[in-house]
């Protein structure tokens, strides 16, 4: 497993952003695990997370000659601190990227509207979010960017849960579906596959493995090892 994957998973377990139990997802599915990006709730934890995102992005785009994106967008709510922390990490690495995010409810006073930050028009925008399950949040973000005159250049998430939108009809994951439909790269720092690999090698996680596999077999894009 590449360094940024295992660093991220161990960090997420340490700050209890990754937890095991029974959770209801936005899609209504009952999941034996949950990734709560709200638990990166200190400067050090958020800075470490941002460095994992930047390493994953740089590894993915290493072969591209021109900068593949020139702006970051964080969808409300959890994408907002993630995109902001990533912008700070890129500044630390010598790249100053414009940054924007949205409000879930438009504001009628003051500056008004639902977009905050640098203008999206004419930019190649990298969407920064925490997790993809069914892809609903990412589709909304794509519509916001297009509506504001920007061009989506890619999507980066911390965790790809690798779930099919409707497993009865297709086992293609939501992330792969969005990638194909919009011809966009979807970069995940880590995936359920990586979490299962870690669970297989780590005695403290071994007890979770059977439930993760049962869930993956019910909803996942990948079945079997
Ligand atoms: O792929 P999906 O099925 O859309 O699920 C993943 C999305 O769900 C959560 O967002 P939520 O809408 O709960 O908002 P939050 O960021 O305000 O917590 C999460 O932060 C992802 O953005
Ligand atoms: O599908 C979701 O709603 C979801 C899954 C997850 O692991 N984390 C999260 O914030 N949302």
Automatic annotation (TrEMBL):
A matching Pfam family: Pribosyltran
Sites where the protein binds orotate: 34-35, 133, 161
Catalytic activity: orotidine 5'-phosphate + diphosphate = orotate + 5-phospho-alpha-D-ribose 1-diphosphate
Keywords: Glycosyltransferase, Magnesium, Pyrimidine biosynthesis, Transferase
EC number: 2.4.2.10
InterPro entries: OPRT (IPR023031), Or_phspho_trans_dom (IPR004467), PRTase-like (IPR029057), PRTase_dom (IPR000836)
Domain spans labelled Phosphoribosyltransferase: 69-165
Binding site for 5-phospho-alpha-D-ribose 1-diphosphate: 26, 77-78, 103-104, 107, 109, 129-137
Listed pathway(s): Pyrimidine metabolism; UMP biosynthesis via de novo pathway; UMP from orotate: step 1/2
Highest taxon, organism lineage: Bacteria
Required cofactor(s): Mg(2+)
HAMAP family (alphabetical): PyrE (MF_01208)
Family of this protein: Belongs to the purine/pyrimidine phosphoribosyltransferase family. PyrE subfamily.
Record function comment: Catalyzes the transfer of a ribosyl phosphate group from 5-phosphoribose 1-diphosphate to orotate, leading to the formation of orotidine monophosphate (OMP).
Complex and partners: Homodimer.
Protein name listed in UniProt: Orotate phosphoribosyltransferase
Organism of derivation: Lysobacter koreensis
Lineage of producing organism: Bacteria, Pseudomonadati, Pseudomonadota, Gammaproteobacteria, Lysobacterales
């Amino acid at each position: 497993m590449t360094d940024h994957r295992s660093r991220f998973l161990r960090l997420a377990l340490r700050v209890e952003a990754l937890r095991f139990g029974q959770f209801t997802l936005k899609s209504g599915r009952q999941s034996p695990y949950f990734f709560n990006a709200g638990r990166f709730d200190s400067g050090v934890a958020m800075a470490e997370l941002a460095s994992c995102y930047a390493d994953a992005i740089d590894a993915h785009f290493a072969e591209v000659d021109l900068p593949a994106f020139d702006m970051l967008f964080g969808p409300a709510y959890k994408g907002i601190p993630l995109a902001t922390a990533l912008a700070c990490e890129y500044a630390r690495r010598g790249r100053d990227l414009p940054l924007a995010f949205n409000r879930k409810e438009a504001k009628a006073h003051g500056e008004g509207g639902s977009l905050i930050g640098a203008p999206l028009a004419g930019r190649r925008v990298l969407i920064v979010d925490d997790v993809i399950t069914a892809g609903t949040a990412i589709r909304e973000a794509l519509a916001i960017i297009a509506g504001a005159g920007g061009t989506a250049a890619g999507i980066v998430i911390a965790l790809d849960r690798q779930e099919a939108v409707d497993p009865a009809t297709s086992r293609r994951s939501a992330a792969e579906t969005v990638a194909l439909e919009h011809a966009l790269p979807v970069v995940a720092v880590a995936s359920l596959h990586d979490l299962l690999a870690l669970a297989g090698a780590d005695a403290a996680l071994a007890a979770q493995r059977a439930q993760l596999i049962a869930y993956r077999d019910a909803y996942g894009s990948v079945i079997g090892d």
